[in-house]
């Protein structure tokens, strides 16, 4: 196992870079010394330290049984903050990068029962790893993959030729078949057995639509699991509030337009952050008092309802003050 695992980072070499679809590339990472990489579970992601100094989170999309490599897949976003452009333009085969060990905020809850895997666009990345794992364990599942066009469908051939290809259904906007051009989410969830667990990944709009349809069909929130790729909506309440540090009693003002993590940093208290969008879970922190305005895509509805933890990079407060377990 790589030597600097204890430091929280891993050196890797880019062993392969492949064009998977329009504006989508995959990269495979291996340990420079050829040793096994740390194990991971389906749904895991890693932090990638990019040549332009940015750190971005990418889901692992290979089988968890593989210890010789990690595979990620990145869609180029021209209007983004530079992470995807760096992966496309600045990273090549043979390059050395630094990554984090895998961590998982989107695990399979019940791999022994029936699973429904629902992917929208680049959200296929953790979903395909789940499919690989479920198939290897002989579990019952189906995979539904919704994408705008065939040209933008990452891993199309891999899925079409997979040993579980009969469990995969593609919905593409240019399919030419009205039945397979757009998934009717309301009808989909009304026809699926409620004892299944559903795993949804894609853009915030896609995930929200799927969750709304499932809840409208009477699904239990405990059976719904999701992860979002994309920025959070900015059209939300940005009122000012206070946070209190439980360990010291210090009170810090969080003004409109500034995150809790930013306000803490300016007061001299640095907390670990990474994505800045409530996607990775790095900054999840305990809350001892107050009501949280959750804006992350990591916590489940049940976890949100407890108001005992929050993502400091994006979530805010419904109450005048939050007491943080720091």
Q: Give the strand tally.
A: 18
Number of domains: 3
Provide the structure class: alpha/beta
Mean pLDDT over all positions:
89
CATH class of the largest domain: Alpha Beta
Amino-to-carboxy terminus distance: 33 Å
Largest sheet: 6 strands, antiparallel
Count helical runs.
7
What is the helix content? 10-25%
Overall 3D geometry? globular
Structural Rg: 20 Å
Annotated CATH topology of the largest domain: Rossmann fold
What are the segments in which pLDDT stays under 50 over at least 5 consecutive residues? 1-6
Describe what this molecule looks like in 3D.
The protein is an alpha/beta fold. The chain has three domains: 3-99, Beta Barrel (Elongation Factor Tu (Ef-tu), domain 3); 115-228, Rossmann fold (3-Layer(aba) Sandwich), CATH 3.40.50.80; 241-324, Beta-grasp domain (Ubiquitin-like (UB roll)). The protein is built from seven helices and 18 strands. Strands 4-3-6-1-2-5 form a six-stranded antiparallel β-sheet, with helices on one face. Mean pLDDT is 89; it is low at 1-6.
Short note summarizing the structure:
This protein has helices spanning 83-89, 124-136, 156-160, 185-191, 204-216, 260-266, 301-306; strands at 10-21, 24-30, 45-49, 55-59, 70-75, 96-99, 115-120, 141-147, 168-172, 197-202, 224-228, 241-245, 251-254, 284-289, 292-293, 309-311, 316-317, 321-324.
């Amino acid at each position: 196992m790589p030597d600097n695992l204890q430091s929280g980072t891993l050196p890797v070499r880019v062993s392969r870079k492949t064009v998977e679809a329009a504006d989508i590339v995959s990269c495979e990472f291996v340990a420079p010394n050829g040793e096994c990489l740390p194990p991971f579970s389906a749904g895991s992601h890693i932090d990638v330290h990019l040549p332009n100094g940015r750190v971005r989170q990418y889901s692992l999309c290979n089988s968890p049984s593989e210890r010789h490599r990690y595979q990620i897949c990145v869609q180029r976003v021209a209007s983004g903050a530079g992470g995807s452009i760096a992966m496309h333009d600045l990273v090549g085969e043979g390059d050395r990068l630094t990554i984090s060990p895998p961590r998982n905020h989107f695990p399979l809850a019940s791999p022994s029962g029936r699973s429904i895997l629902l992917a929208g666009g680049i959200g296929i990345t953790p979903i395909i790893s789940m499919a690989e794992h479920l198939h290897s364990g002989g579990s019952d599942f189906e995979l539904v993959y919704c994408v705008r066009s065939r040209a933008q469908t990452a891993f199309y051939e891999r899925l079409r030729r997979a040993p579980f290809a009969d469990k995969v259904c593609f919905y593409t906007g240019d399919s030419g078949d009205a039945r397979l051009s757009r998934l009717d989410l309301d009808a989909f969830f009304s026809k699926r057995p409620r004892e299944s667990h559903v795993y949804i990944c894609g853009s915030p709009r896609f995930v929200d639509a799927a969750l709304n349809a499932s809840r409208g069909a009477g699904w239990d929130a405990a059976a719904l699991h999701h992860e979002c790729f994309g920025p959070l909506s900015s059209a939300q309440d940005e009122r000012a509030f206070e946070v209190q540090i439980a360990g010291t009693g210090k009170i810090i003002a969080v003004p409109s337009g500034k995150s809790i993590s930013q306000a803490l940093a300016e007061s001299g208290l640095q907390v670990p952050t990474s994505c800045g969008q409530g996607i990775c879970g790095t900054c999840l922190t305990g809350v001892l008092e107050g009501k949280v305005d959750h804006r992350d895509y990591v916590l489940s509805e049940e976890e949100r309802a407890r108001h005992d933890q929050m993502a400091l990079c994006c979530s805010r407060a419904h109450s005048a003050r939050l007491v943080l377990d720091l």
